[in-house]
Design brief:
The protein has 124 residues and is mainly alpha-helical. It has one domain. It has 4 helices and no strands.
Length: 124
């Protein structure tokens, strides 16, 4: 949809900054609530911006590792079952790389400031 208005990510960033600024003027529980709201808006903005690529990369990585197809949820379930059954013990390094990549993507959305410099992208 073509429009001259800010996109959703920019709107979320603007509201996040507004809530953060207002929260700085509040006290007690209201201040805490404002900080939580600002934090959650940040997660929403990053999920909209980064999520689609991360989801596709996760699906592709799981499908390649498992040599299988399906939804992300189905592939995750198969991976977990395979780990519990010891099916991936011979591919331990490859498995750890896959799990680390998925974890980094999740942290990039929820708490990008907790990522080591080597795992940060310019987008997060």
């Amino acid at each position: 949809m073509s429009q001259y208005l800010p996109d959703v990510q920019e709107l979320l960033k603007t509201v996040q900054q507004y809530v953060r600024d207002m929260g700085a003027k509040l006290k007690g529980g209201d201040k805490y609530d404002a900080l939580v709201a600002a934090y959650l808006l940040g997660i929403c903005e990053r999920e909209l911006r980064l999520g689609p690529d991360f989801n596709q990369n996760e699906k592709d990585g799981l499908a390649d590792f498992l040599k299988s197809t399906g939804s992300v949820e189905e592939l995750q379930k198969r991976l977990c079952e395979g780990i519990r059954a010891g099916n991936h013990d011979e591919n331990w390094d490859e498995l750890l790389d896959l799990v680390l990549a998925q974890t980094v993507n999740n942290v990039a959305v929820v708490r990008p400031d907790h990522l080591s410099e080597i795992h940060r992208s310019n987008e997060s």
